[in-house]
């Protein structure tokens, strides 16, 4: 009986810890978990920040883009994009989702109108500008796209997507040196952008060939 009673007391003492383990990480715990030696903790921390993180957490997630674990890097990038897509205003977030649906269905004109409304109501929301920049690029309005990228970077200097967008715009405008500079800036923040890395390699090869032709 004494052994059974002792086991029961130990089990009761462990229950709060077990329940705590099942609880999601707080925002602060998730941020600290990114520095854990345990890869599972780093993945969990990045994932949780995708759910509850704020713009102030993006810098820590950017560091995680260089994690030695590939899955952690991928989760961190997804978390960053989730945070960027939250305006802090329920109505704006609903409009944003409507804009994404229009964008994904190919209704570029209607999507542009929706993101323009978002920009008018909450101009500090950088992702509204970014999505409109993407749409303008998709319909060949490169100068409008560039101007919207300017607005994104004013509000979110770590936006590697907008920096890569500049690169694509300048490629279309036949300004390879400027395109190369922006692609390198994007890759410096997020080294996992394979398409950007390929564009850098392509532009550098073209630059070398052009210099050889001058000799």
Oligomer type: single chain
| Contiguous uncertain segments of 5+ residues | 1-20
**How many H/I helices?**
12
Number of strands: 0
Average pLDDT confidence is 90
Under CATH, the topology of the largest domain can be stated as Serine Threonine Protein Phosphatase 5, Tetratricopeptide repeat
Classify the helix fraction into a percent range: over 70%
CATH class of the largest domain: Mainly Alpha
Number of domains: 2
What would you give as the CATH superfamily of the largest domain? Tetratricopeptide repeat domain
Helix/strand class:
mainly alpha
Euclidean distance between termini CA atoms: 94 Å
Q: Please tell me the CATH architecture of the largest domain by its name.
A: Alpha Horseshoe
Indicate the overall shape.
Answer: flat
Taking Cα atoms only, what radius of gyration do you get, to the nearest Å? Answer: 23 Å
Taking the sheet with the most strands, its summary is:
none
Helix/strand order? HHHHHHHHHHHH
